[in-house]
Specification:
heterodimer; A: 169 residues; five-stranded antiparallel sheet; four-stranded antiparallel sheet; 9 strands; 30% helix; B: alpha/beta
Chain lengths: 169, 586
Amino acid sequence: MKHLPPERHTLSILVDNEAGVLARIVGLFSARGYNIESLTVADVSDDHLVSRITVVTSGPPPVIEQIMAQLDRLVPVHRVLDLTALGPHVEREMALVKVAGTGDKRVEALRLADIFRARPVDTSTNSFVFEVSGSTDKVNQFIALMREVGLVEVARTGVVAIARGAEAA
Amino acid sequence: MGLEIAGAEIVVQALIDLGVEVVFGYPGGAVLPIYDALFQQNRIRHILVRHEQAAVHAAEGYARSSGKVGVVLVTSGPGATNAVTGITDALMDSVPLVVITGQVPTHLIGTDAFQECDTVGITRHCSKHNYLVKDTARLGPVLHEAFYIARSGRPGPVVIDIPKDVQIFKARYIKPGTIAHKTYKPQVKGDLAAIEAAVDMLAAAERPILYTGGGIINSGPVASQLLRELAKASGAPVTSTLMGLGTLPADHPQFLGMLGMHGSYEANMAMNRCDLMVCLGARFDDRVTGRLDAFSPTSRKIHVDIDRSSFNKTVRVDLTIQGDVGSVLEDMMKVWRARGHAPADLAPWWAQIAGWRARNSFGFEQKGVDPSGALLPQKAIQRLYEMTKAKKPIISTEVGQHQMWAAQHFGFHEPNKWLTSGGLGTMGYGLPAAIGAQLAFPGALVIDIAGEASIQMNIQELGTATQYRLPVKIFIINNEYMGMVRQWQELNHGSRYSESYSDSLPDFVKLAEAYGWKGVVIDGPGNLDAGIQAMLDHPGPVVVDCRVSKLANCFPMIPSGAAHTDMILSAADEVGPADDDAKALV
């Protein structure tokens, strides 16, 4: 079963916001040999009792099904949603991208940033830090272009995602 | 509102309120307040083991034989790490336990304090759930919740780590009512439409088989009764995993014996050739399936399990029913009756099975005659069974050849009589498990069928049985080898017996006597019965050193990486050298 082609899935996990819960989730992935492409976590409720963990993972469909089942049986897990399987949803990530350079390269960096709607959030006479957000592909593409104009370093949030429409998924 | 009491007293009071009668443990600095609270009450009996690993196995033996939650109390640091093997064992075999560990006071956590370890970190993936309780007021609710989690759903071990200051500080304790956890809600009732579909598939099958496991035992004795009803109604053959032995009586005409690596030929062939497999509370473990791509290629498969993550983990099935297997069996029987199904004509299927049965795959006398005329281990276990079956004994085992021979040659007729480490395969399990079972059933005959290597892994527990006057019997199948290791070295490693010889064995009789036990030697077929009788006649604990043929191997066997149809029935069966893929398997 593990020889089927891998698929990329975005999972949304609602958990009790208690000590060690992230370690439970991450440990499950490493103990059972599942992939984590990105992971984000933050408290999302008024009373600070519930956190949402967004995990981008990849694996053949039976492995994804197994990941869902394994997550679902952890005691502090409220719900596990496979957003990729559920259908229309929005995925975004944000990156801070530092580029350094002068002259033409500096002008080109600004022009490209404008096309990608990336905003300079820090600047010096020979550098910028751009804030760019969007799909993983868009962020990847922006970073690839920045390599040619003096990329220094990158910080990325990883994917956050939510189902489309009025209802909670 | 009650008075404020110390955390340690809350722990003890909650255990009393939860109906706990026995706690297995070992004191130490970080649990002294709880031990002090235990000292000042007389409702709970504490059993002092000689090593924390044994405390957990004893609690497992107590839990598996009685169906109650086993309770363990150990100290921080080494107390907790010594318990880890037992906790993992209980997770793999779905045994309900609550393990309470002491911890250094909260203000010292993270400072590498004396006997500090990250107990919740270490046990996170070998427990069903765990807690670090930092507030005395939380102790009561956490204890009650822990018992609920341990025994409900797929049972398992729950660890509660309690810093020493939390045991000392005071809070109010109120006995809670029913526990309703906000996220943990096990599904007990199976989906009715799926159950109806399963019943119709079973009624229409020409070559059905019921593949049963430890889930039926965990569900309670009623589930075993319901299995017998379903077997009768459907007329289908039944096989069982190692963990499920006893759900159907060993002499039931529809029982094909255990399946899997050392299972019967008829059970494995029937699994391979069936057209419908109904898996009830088992999990398609690798010992059971053999080579996955050759596993039961022509069957449709139904899987009943309380744990959703067991579905489609290694074997794809056609229909899943999530729920407690006892509840699902009850609904299956209701539907079966409501639809007026009669047993299908399975005569051709049974005729085929009769052909496989005729191979007598567990037979031993006619083959494998030891040149020295030594006692065959199979014979020893067979006689042990025949001479004790009227007493309905509880049997525990260690791990290895003797364990498989016990599964093959000892007949089990009821659930909860068979205690063995299946998933983790923990040598040293049997003696403490027997002690736990003896505490649950003081009047029962409890026998640990052991190997001379395994028994030494928790031999110190002889003292525990002596202290509490427990008449446990240990029947050591002594072949002076780690027999299963030696057998694999013969199969896969050119018979190079690397470190598998049990050198410098103790004189087990003298060792028994040193602990106040009786020791008996059986050194050949001639005094086998007399030795067993001497063991049974002695009212106290007995070690039997049963010396058997040194080189006997455990057959039948599906070699690693092979299919059900490639069973080796005896040593005479030619088997080529294993390829590297097969050698890499365990």
